[in-house]
Amino acid sequence: AFAVAQRANLQQLLFDETTACGVDVHFGRRCVGASTATRVTLEFESGPAHGAELVIAADGVNSRVRDSLGFNVRRTVVGEAFLRVVCPIAHPDRQRIGEVWVGDGRRAGAFPLPGAHTYLFCSVPLGQWRNILERRLPEWVTSWKNLGPPISTLIESVDDWHSAVYDELQDLRVDP
């Protein structure tokens, strides 16, 4: 089984649950690092530092919190790039949810979201997305047609490829 949540919905759920538990949530402050003693102290670009008994650092592959705490990180560049986008239609074939591998090395995957939307990811040539977006988008979209539904249907449904998130994959291994 798969479960996919839109980031905004997950953030709202976390906000609602933490505030219901009496946790103070602060917005508009950029964390630049952390230190530990008996508690974790978060340091910010502006404003005072803040101490906490528990910090969940979900600040991504280039985590300033993780790096400032001195964790040993082994980073490997994978050499692949992917796009992530929310399609404006419901998943067209609930029997074909998941990932598809193409003989030429491309991959794509699609997962239903609430409200008649679908989460789609697909591979894109490393370092080429900006050029494809500006000069070759129709050709690139057509290149997925041979996969057939549901992937081709979903790719063709995207009306704003500028909203797609482009990521070059990295593998991070963190030693405690």
Structure described in brief:
The protein is built from 4 helices and 8 strands. With 176 residues, it is α+β, with helices and mostly antiparallel strands.
Q: Can you put this structure into words, describing what you see?
A:
The protein has four helices and eight strands; from the N terminus they run αβββαββββααβ. By secondary structure, the chain is α+β, with helices and mostly antiparallel strands. The radius of gyration is 20 Å and the shape is globular.
Number of helices: 4
Summing up helix and strand content along with how strands pair, one would put the structural category as alpha+beta
Unreliable stretches covering 5 or more consecutive residues:
none
Fraction in helix: 10-25%
Oligomer: single chain
- Amount of beta strand: 25-35%
Shape: globular
N-end to C-end Cα span: 31 Å
Strand/helix succession: HEEEHEEEEHHE
Query: Main β-sheet: number of strands, strand sense, barrel status?
Result: 5 strands, antiparallel
Rg, alpha carbons: 20 Å
Strand order of the largest sheet: 5-6-7-4-8
Mean pLDDT over the full residue set: 91
Number of strands: 8
